[in-house]
Predict the structure.
Amino acid sequence: MPSTGQEPEDEGPVQPNWLLSLLVALVCLAVVVSGWSVARLTLGGTEPAAEEDDPPQAPQTSAAEADPRDAEAFLGLAARELREAPSFHISYTQSMDGEETGHGWARHEPDADTAFEHFFRTASGVRVHRYDLPGTGLMMTAEKGLSGMTVLDPPSEADLRLCSVEFALATLDELADSAEDLKLVGTEELTLPAGTEGVAAGTHTTYRYTGTFPAPVGGYEPETGRNTLTRLAGAEFDLWVDEDGHPRRLGFTSPEGVGATYDYHALAD
């Protein structure tokens, strides 16, 4: 602002009364602390409870420690072994009243360009390719119903199951969690035929289990270009698990005659 021509008189430096200032500060602090204590008593507040440490997790049972006669525990082990496997290759067939209605394979390999790849051929011969591509998401293409490679955004429940590793993993998880009338039948030698993509045949000593569970079955509708997912209530299953806890074959059939068989090849530890 412009000067008025009048300057304040110089009164000289003012010496602060430091003792008085200190006393005033201490009184103010005491009032604040007292007020906080009263507020806590009035509102019923309490000091936040210290967070408790999570209880220690029980060590997981290894295949060497597991008892195959404990069917529920051994099936849980098989589901865990598959989920923790760094790679796997699965081939499967679908059927109706014993007649094949479709077949396919799925694989998960850490060094592959895709996180998951799933091929399926319908009963009418339509070939469907499904992928989980890092950085892109779930994709698929089919000879009928889709015009080229299609990104599934947003994915349906069927897309999430059939185009990701959950196609292989979730079925065994659900079986281990929901199986009824579960029992160990005995020990059997199981020979798996050669799979696709150069997977060799192999023979395994296995434990065979039977029971029932709500089995999921995936499919594809060429008319709409959509994946489908159906749950078969009360499906009777046979599951073969080798001595290392690896699942080797799962077969099931619903009361209506719909069935599927999955062969688990080349599981890496």
Remarks:
- Residues 1-48 have pLDDT under 50 and may be disordered.
- The longest strand covers residues 202-221.
